[in-house]
Automatic annotation (TrEMBL):
The protein's name in its UniProt record: ABC-type quaternary amine transporter
Gene3D superfamilies: P-loop containing nucleotide triphosphate hydrolases
Source organism superkingdom: Bacteria
Domain ABC transporter: start-end pairs: 1-215
Pfam families tied to this protein: ABC_tran
UniProt entry keywords in alphabetical sequence: ATP-binding, Nucleotide-binding, Transport
UniProt GO MF annotations: ABC-type quaternary ammonium compound transporting activity; ATP binding; ATP hydrolysis activity
Enzyme Commission identifier(s): 7.6.2.9
Organism: Enterococcus ratti
InterPro entries attached to this UniProt entry: AAA+_ATPase, ABC_transporter-like_ATP-bd, ABC_transporter-like_CS, P-loop_NTPase
The keyword ATP-binding appears for this protein: yes
Length: 300
């Protein structure tokens, strides 16, 4: 299994499949029982692990901000260890707080207990990013948050990744989250890699019944067309043509998703007129609603 520089690589699988253990092996906290972990082509055994970890940001499910430190002090822990001057630390922290939607003047001196769960996780993301690491490890960072905060932070991760270009290794057990975020997805089961591929390939060509069933609801929804997204009102009613690719009502969602890997949105047109646009987020909302609808039908 290899991770390409600059991609969002998602580890997905049921509880106990080895996702978090894999992150800890990447970070040098656990030793692999077989094989070895290479970072930039070198075995972890060749690195000073403490210095290497400074080059890897870590965002945890439990958030894990230091409760007796302010937001500013939490963010500046690693830069201070690296010997950054105070002005440089403060400037970097304030810049990133702004990027994640937290006003530095309002938040830098607050204590963690004064923040909501979503705000704490935003600070956790800033703390992971502030020392400019090459790799960010994210261990189910949004699983404890409400759906609105979760969606907002997913969008934040995509935005920061697009702007900063760092490599992200993201752990989740939610298949829709994996599809939404991942450039590449590794499916794990009982400590073993089952399949590793691009999202559209996983959905179209699952390796076995386990992968097929794990992504079953999502895969079935991807067999729908643009028309279903329009009927479900999961699109933006922007009728001005943008400089983006065009799709039609009968275009399969899987084909739309493949286009959205390289483009921010697509124009939906009918009879040469633009009806609106569809983004990756719109498809995610549609998939989530489809899954909830099927679950409600089963429960009746």
């Amino acid at each position: 299994m290899s991770i390409t520089k600059g991609e969002i690589f998602v580890l997905v699988g049921p509880s106990g499949s080895g996702k978090t253990t894999s992150l800890k092996m990447i970070n040098g906290l656990f030793q692999p029982s077989a094989g070895e972990v290479l970072f930039k082509g070198k075995s972890l055994t060749e690195y000073n692990l403490q210095k290497m970890r400074w080059n890897m940001g870590y965002v945890l499910q439990q958030i894990a901000l230091f409760p007796n430190m302010t937001v500013k002090q939490n963010i500046e822990v690693i830069p201070e260890m690296l010997g950054w001057e105070r002005k440089k630390r403060e400037h970097a922290a304030d810049q990133l707080l702004e990027k994640v939607g937290l006003d530095p003047a309002s938040y830098r001196n607050r204590m963690p207990q004064e923040l909501s769960g979503g705000e704490q996780q935003r600070v956790g993301i800033v703390r992971a990013l502030v020392a400019n690491p090459e790799v960010i490890l994210m261990d189910e960072p949004f699983s404890a948050l409400d759906p609105l905060s979760r969606t907002s932070l997913q969008e934040l991760v995509l935005s920061l990744h697009q702007e900063l270009g760092m490599t992200i290794v993201f752990v989740t057990h939610h298949m829709n989250e994996a599809i939404k975020l991942g450039d590449k997805i590794a499916v794990m089961k009982e400590g073993k890699l089952v399949q590793c591929d691009r999202p559209e390939q996983l959905l179209a060509h699952p390796k076995n019944e386990f992968v097929h069933s794990f992504f079953d609801d999502t895969r079935q929804a991807y067999q729908e067309t643009v028309k279903e997204i329009i009927m479900a009102n999961c699109y933006s009613k922007v009728q001005q043509r943008s400089n983006q690719p065009n799709v039609h009502l009968n275009t399969p969602l899987q084909e739309v998703y493949e286009i959205l890997i390289k483009h921010a949105a697509v124009n939906v047109q009918e009879n040469e007129k633009v009806m609106g646009k569809i983004t990756r987020e719109d498809i995610f909302i549609f998939l989530t609603r489809s899954k909830m609808k099927k679950k409600n039908i089963k429960n009746k």
